[in-house]
Specification:
With 160 residues, the chain is mainly alpha-helical. It is built from 6 helices and no strands.
């Protein structure tokens, strides 16, 4: 054997490889407050009139679907807010809670982007105080809440 040809060093299955080199890498940092936040998928714009019609035709069952789907879209988009299954259960068992919770979650999406929130938990007072009067309060609540949600999705690039 010559000096240039060395036999391979014996390897052991118990020897760990050398640690990776982190030279030149910058440690992870968190964005400052108010910085743009990465978003998930954009939700669907739903016609307010069609939603009201579907609610009437299905004798109110469409509202359960609407609660679940809209909260699912908001949760996927922001990673925050009410879990869709919780929204559905609350919508079925104590629906008046949803009159406050849903516009609060919609308003939170606006706040998160640094925009003025057109609806908030206070919007639920329409359903609470005037909901019994020929559904006037419930209709005003839905028009305001669904309209704000649609406007938000459009501001994020949704079509419809």
């Amino acid at each position: 054997m010559t000096d240039e040809q060395q036999p391979p060093a014996p390897t052991s299955p118990y020897v760990s490889p050398p640690p990776p080199s982190y030279a030149g890498q910058v440690p992870a940092t968190f964005p400052p407050p108010g910085a743009p936040v990465a978003d998930g998928p954009i939700g669907t714009v739903r016609s307010t009139g069609v939603c009201i019609l579907l609610t009437i035709v299905t004798l109110g069952f469409y509202t359960w679907y609407w609660y679940y789907v809209t909260h699912d879209e908001m949760k996927r988009h922001t990673g925050q807010g009410t879990e869709p299954a919780i929204a559905l259960v609350l919508g079925i068992l104590i629906s008046i809670v949803m009159a406050f919770l849903t516009p609060n979650d919609v308003g939170a999406m606006y706040r998160r982007k640094g925009m003025r929130e057109p609806v908030s938990a206070v919007t639920g007072l329409w359903a609470l105080l005037l909901g019994w009067f020929f559904f006037v309060g419930a209709i005003v609540w839905f028009v305001k809440t669904n309209g704000a949600l649609n406007a938000y999705w459009r501001s994020q690039g949704a079509r419809g």
